[in-house]
Specification:
155 residues, 6 helices, 80% helix, mainly alpha, globular
């Protein structure tokens, strides 16, 4: 993919994430599209770039959540580390493994954030953030992956 297409895709995902957080939070359709950007950066970039991207994307998620600043920054940094290490060891051509990588790493990241919220704010565990959001984000990641692979074959 060329740089202009990547940048346009990142801007589109960021804009759609803002729209989802502002207007569709009540519909329980809160996909984490910024996490897909983190997955891409962690799989394609080096160790330091993926950790920096994890921290920045986590801080943006903290801003959207309106809670304590740094909780998602920390949990997304750990997820970026996991994604960077695991992407070197698994076959990324297998769609099921990519889905599991996205869903499990987002689930672990949300679990870490929920533990912080539990200890700090007495926040109850939210099954939606631990199960549904990772599964829906993994499905969205697979759909993006399929669209990009088909676009690559059409060019």
């Amino acid at each position: 993919m060329n740089r202009k297409f990547k940048f346009a895709l990142f801007v589109l995902l960021f804009a759609v994430q803002i729209i989802i957080n502002l207007y569709f939070e009540v519909l329980s359709l809160n996909l984490d599209l910024l996490y897909l950007v983190l997955v891409y950066v962690s799989m394609k970039s080096g160790f330091v770039k993926s950790l920096v991207a994890g921290t920045l994307i986590g801080l943006v998620a903290d801003y959207f959540s309106g809670n304590i600043l740094g909780v998602f920054g920390f949990s997304r940094t750990i997820a970026a580390y996991m994604l960077n290490e695991l992407s070197r060891r698994i076959d990324l051509k297998n769609n099921f493994l990519v889905f599991l990588l996205i869903a499990l790493s987002l689930g672990i990241s949300n679990l870490i954030a929920n533990l912080f919220f539990l200890f700090i704010l007495d926040f109850q565990f939210n099954i939606y953030l631990l199960v549904y959001q990772p599964v829906f984000t993994g499905i969205a990641g697979l759909l993006f992956l399929k669209a990009l692979k088909s676009r690559k074959h059409l060019d």
